[in-house]
Amino acid sequence: MNAAGAILEVEGVSKHFGRFIALNNVSARFQPNKLSAIIGPNGAGKSTFFNVVSGAFAPTAGRLKFKGRDITGLKQHEFARIGIAKSFQVTNVFKQLSAHENVRVAVQMRHARYQLLGPRAAMRDVTERADQLLLRVGLAGLRDRPAADLAHGQQRALEVAMALAAEPELLLMDEPTAGMSPEETVVMMDLITALSQERSVIIVEHKMKLVMGICERLLVLHHGEFLAEGTPEEIKANADVRRVYLGQG
Ligand SMILES: Nc1ncnc2c1ncn2[C@@H]1O[C@H](COP(=O)(O)OP(=O)(O)OP(=O)(O)O)[C@@H](O)[C@H]1O
Ligand SMILES: [Mg+2]
Q1: Residue whose CA is closest, atom 4 of ligand 1?
Q2: Angle ∠(7,205,194) on CA atoms, nearest 5
Q3: What is the pLDDT along the chain (249 residues), one digit of tens a residue?
Q4: Is 15 in the pocket of ligand 1 (CB under 6 A)?
Q5: Does the reported pTM lie above 0.85?
Q6: Domains in the chain and their CATH numbers?
Q7: What values do phi and psi take at 111, rounded to 5?
C-alpha cells in the first residue's frame, strides 16, 4: 500500500506562479498521529506548500497521496470530505454569529448525514456536537458570545473548532499563532499539542523557536526547496538552517 503507513505523501511537487517557482520539486512524507512543522523564513514557500497540500492550489507538477491514495487534482471540498481540514492564516469566522452558531454551521455543512435524521434529532445532534467542539478548544464558557466579542486568540481557537467539525484525520494549520499575544500563543500551542495526540497535524510556522518544543519533526523550506528535515535537535544543530535563519536578521 502506501510507503510505511504514511498519512500524507508529497512526491516531487512544484508550484509555479507564471515564471516564478514558489515550490521546486519537493518531496516529504508524514506519519499518522504526529505533529510536524514546516518552517522557513518569510517567502520560503510555506503558505504555497500549505495551499497545495490542503487542495487550494493544484500543483504544477508532482503528486499528493493521502493514506496511499492519489489525491492530486481533487477539488477543495473533496479534501474536506476525505479527512483533510485546514485552519487559515487569516481569521475566518462569522463575526455576528455566536461562537456556538459558528461551530454549528461548520458541523452542519460538513455532515450530509444530518439530512438523514429527523429534523429534531438532527438539531439536537448538531447542537451537542458543536458544544463538544467548543469544550475541546476551551471556549465552552463563551458559547453564546458573538464571535466579534472574542479576543483574537479565542477567534483562532473558534476557527480550529470549525475545522475539527469535519472530524479530520489530518489537520493543517498555517501560522496558527499569527498576531497572538504571548499568553494566547501558549494556549494555542497547548491546544495543538493536545490535538496531535488524536490525529495528524502539520503546522506551517516561521517562528522556529515556537515549534521546537512541541514538534516531533521539522521540515525547513528555503527558496521553495527543503533545506533540512529532522528532529528539533537535528534542526537546531544544522549549519545550513542556522545560516538561513541568521541571514534573515
Ligand atoms: N499567488 C501568487 N502569485 C505570485 N507569486 C506568489 C503567489 N503566492 C506566493 N507567491 C510568491 O511565492 C513565494 C513564496 O510565498 P509563500 O507565501 O508561500 O511564502 P511563506 O513562506 O508562506 O512566507 P511568509 O512567512 O511571509 O508567510 C514568495 O516569493 C511569494 O511572493
Ligand atoms: Mg505564509
Answers
A1: 17
A2: 60
A3: 456 689 999 999 999 999 999 999 999 999 999 999 999 999 999 999 999 999 999 999 999 999 999 999 999 889 988 999 998 656 678 999 999 999 999 898 876 655 666 777 777 889 999 999 999 999 999 999 999 999 999 999 999 999 999 899 999 999 999 889 999 999 999 999 999 999 999 999 988 888 998 999 999 999 999 999 999 999 999 999 999 887 654
A4: no
A5: yes
A6: 31-83+168-249 (3.40.50.300), 93-165 (no CATH)
A7: -130, 85
For ligand 1, pick from 14, 15, 17 the residue to mutate: most ligand atoms within 8 Å of CB: 17
**What is the amino acid identity at position 144?**
D
The amino acid occupying position 151 is A
The strands making up 225-230's β-sheet, listed across from edge to edge, are 84-87, 170-174, 200-205, 35-39, 217-222, 225-230
